[in-house]
Design a protein that fits this description.
The protein has 158 residues and is of the alpha+beta class. The chain has helices spanning 11-16, 21-28, 38-45, 92-106, 122-130, and strands spanning 2-5, 50-57, 60-69, 74-82, 112-118, 134-139, 144-145, 148-149, 152-157. It is built from five helices and nine strands, in the order E-H-H-H-E-E-E-H-E-H-E-E-E-E. A hairpin with a 4-residue loop joins strand 3 and strand 4 (74-82).
């Protein structure tokens, strides 16, 4: 298992993993409007602080994860997704997150790793907790989908 940088020519494959507006919002928050386009992903990935990776096994794309370098000492995990064809419940999320944490600390100098996750995304929350993230803040009223409040949880790993 390893992380490999995402190439521009691979953006369409990532887009194919997101099948509807709700899944898009769960994955990207307000960053990407539905339907996602290559130009939206391209615009995000041109930023110097954004590092996007495939999580691969034997050349197969198992997942996608983005690291945003917030400051010299902090990286944020963003847009974490497992390829729907790879299947869930196999520990891929934990492995991918651990590799991303290692990259953030060893290559980018991070001492703090943070993330935001929607409160109702219980599988993701449990995965983050399993690798050591702790809840530091709960926010309501800042993210809504289809007229419903989606509370946002901030989690951190030091």
């Amino acid at each position: 298992m390893q992380l490999q940088p995402v190439q521009h020519s691979e953006y369409r494959e990532l887009i194919s993993w997101i099948t509807d507006a709700e899944q898009n919002y769960l994955w990207s928050g307000p960053l990407y409007s539905w339907p996602i386009t290559v130009s939206q992903i391209e615009s995000q990935n041109q930023k110097a602080e954004v590092h996007s990776f495939w999580f691969t096994q034997s050349e197969e794309k198992i997942g996608f994860i983005e690291l945003n370098q917030i400051s010299k000492n902090e990286c944020r995990l963003c847009r974490v997704i497992i390829n729907p064809l790879a299947g869930r419940g196999k520990g891929y999320g934990k492995q991918m997150i651990q590799l991303a944490i290692s990259h953030a600390c060893n290559e980018l100098g991070a001492r703090l790793i943070s993330l935001d996750v929607f409160e109702h995304n219980l599988l993701a929350k449990r995965c983050y907790e399993a690798v050591g993230f702790e809840l530091t803040r709960r926010q309501t009223g800042i993210r809504k989908f289809a007229g419903k409040d989606w509370p946002l949880l901030r989690m951190e790993l030091r």
